[in-house]
């Protein structure tokens, strides 16, 4: 009987450590997803501000043109690029949907800000930027959905492990 208990204990301890490691990996994954989506959300807020200023009256357009800072936008785009690159490097291979959504959002973000220039602020109509912003919004919704779906799959897996553990622990 002691040998059986020793074997069960020898199996239970590594299994418990594996569960802890999986939970830690899930927390790390959730943090990476949040970092990625936060970078894109921050850039979207700036894009929305630019679009509203351009779509607004001439006074708003002039104020935004005066405050327009391409280096600040480049900084935000570098942050988005870094988040997208980290998503590809640090997220498991079974999450292709999130990586694809990140690539689409990155391309949309670049398209929007590349079409936003000092000349466009005073001469072009905002309709072209509105179309790019709508595509950006759609891609960001896809990014958030893919991230949420990935986290739910991880939580379902952890819940199943917990249920199995609860079933076997009393025995």
From TrEMBL:
This is Uncharacterized protein. It comes from Caballeronia sordidicola. The lineage of its organism: Bacteria, Pseudomonadati, Pseudomonadota, Betaproteobacteria, Burkholderiales.
